Amino acid sequence: MRFSEFQKSLAQPHPVYVVVSKQELFLRRVYDLCREQVKESARDFDWSVFDLERDSVGEVVQAARTLPWVSRRRWVYVRDHAGSGLKAYLARPAPRTVLVLEAKKRSRAWSRLPLIEFDKKVGPARWLRAWAKQEGYVLDPAAARALVELVGDDLGRLRMELEKQFLARWESRKITSESVAEITLESREYDVFNLIGAMAKGQSSTALLILNRLFAKGVSFSQILAMLYWTFRRLLVAREMLDQGRSYREVLRKLKIWSYRGQEGEVRRYPPEWIERVLIRIRETDRACKSGVSEPRFHLERLLIDTCRQGQL
Q1: CATH code assigned at 87
Q2: Residue 158 and residue 251 in one domain
Q3: Contact in structure between 211 and 191 (CB atoms under 8 Å)
Q4: What is the edge-to-edge ordering of all strands in the sheet holding 47-51?
Q5: Interval 262-291: pLDDT, tens
Q6: Structural domain boundaries, residue 147
Q7: Are residues 256 and 230 in the same domain?
Q8: 86 and 109 housed in the same domain
Q9: What gap in Å lies between CA 176 and CA 169, rounded to an integer?
């Protein structure tokens, strides 16, 4: 069953549930929902959590067989269960206990038990927006997509980054793509991604604005040039791989250009000859910056303006 179906079932819960996932954020949402079923004042009596890396199956069964003290039902949550040791209990579960077993993979022992699974059709961006709403925040769709582009689709890492946004936007309760760019660790790479897009579209004012933001974050001219060169080199290889008939997913995985997830059309629009010209200009700019004749910032700004004038796609 999906998470929403699990929520609906709690009006008349099953005596046993199994949640199978490697996504920490999903597991946490299930855990939090289970915990909320017991009033805070009754949790010392009717809410138990076990981890089978340190606790025994016998302790789990003893807790599950104990009648609830205050609540209508006792809730027992078990982490790191591998699908063995509870066969006798599962055949005859306690009617006034809800036992939730958390695991990283399925087991044949659970074939007849209600299975809570992460709905892969619901992308991480939608998960983030739903979680932000639950916490009382408004997460812009563009900001959610930016987080996924920056961090990837690992829900554990996404959760940590979103929690940073919660702290930073405590007063406004609104999270935008601008706040994501300011705070997220990988925002420098995201800025470079946007910088290249502005260069390709001939948007010199946008390119200069992003350059100023990178300098304000303490990124040196040599670091900016290195990131530009690294990304353009991989874009050139990406175009070659795509022209050879390789899948876009394979290209992303091999070249690690995660900022371009979902941007296959944009990558295909970059002509190889334009990328090669920009790479030559980056090398020339690097030599000019190291010559010491003028300020490195001047050479970088000139690189962006000239590229915008000549390379509008």
Answers
A1: 3.40.50.300
A2: no
A3: no
A4: 47-51, 74-79, 97-103, 16-20, 115-117
A5: 778 888 888 899 899 899 999 998 888 777
A6: 124-183
A7: yes
A8: yes
A9: 10
SS3 251: helix
92 and 70 in one domain?
yes
Identify the three-state secondary structure at position 19.
Answer: strand
DSSP 123-175: -HHHHHHHHHHHTT-EE-HHHHHHHHHHH-S-HHHHHHHHHHHHHHTTTT-EE
What is the Cβ-side half-sphere exposure of residue 261, based on CA atoms within 13 angstroms? 15
231, 162, 139, 188 alpha-carbon torsion, rounded to 10°:
-20
Number of domains in the chain: 3
Report the distance separating Cα 176 and Cα 160, nearest Å. 17
Which whole number is the average pLDDT over 39-60? 90
Tokens of 300: 């970088």
How long, in residues, is the chain? 313
Partners of 51 in beta bridges: 79
pLDDT at 126: 81
Residue with tokens 């910088």: 195
Give the integer Cα–Cα distance in Å for 203 and 235: 19
